[in-house]
């Protein structure tokens, strides 16, 4: 399972990291007047490998749209103690 609520953000200020965490942990379609904000959580229903690829693209696209002060350089996935995959997003 991929856990998008505990995304690790590397390479930026605390303010921008908090903004990115808000984007990444918000399900798309739940923000009134901006239904595109957030991540398409339907991606999480895909197979792990496919979901990882789609989330990488989704993170980069949403950062470009909602936080243009940084760009996604790399997205990796680490395993926590419960065998959940946690996205680790490096920005610059």
UniProtKB/TrEMBL annotation:
List residues of the IraD/Gp25-like domain.
Answer: 14-83
Q: Which InterPro entries match?
A: IraD/Gp25-like
Quote any Pfam family the record assigns: GPW_gp25
Q: What domain of life?
A: Bacteria
What name does UniProt use for this protein? Protein 25-like lysozyme
């Amino acid at each position: 399972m991929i856990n998008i609520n505990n995304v690790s953000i590397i390479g930026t200020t605390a303010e921008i990291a908090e903004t990115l965490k808000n984007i990444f942990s918000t399900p798309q379609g739940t923000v009134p007047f901006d239904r595109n904000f957030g991540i398409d959580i339907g991606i999480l229903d895909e197979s792990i490998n496919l979901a990882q690829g789609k989330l990488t693209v989704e993170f980069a696209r949403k950062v470009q749209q909602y936080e243009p002060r940084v760009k996604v350089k790399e997205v990796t996935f680490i395993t926590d103690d419960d065998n959940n995959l946690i996205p680790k997003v490096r920005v610059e």
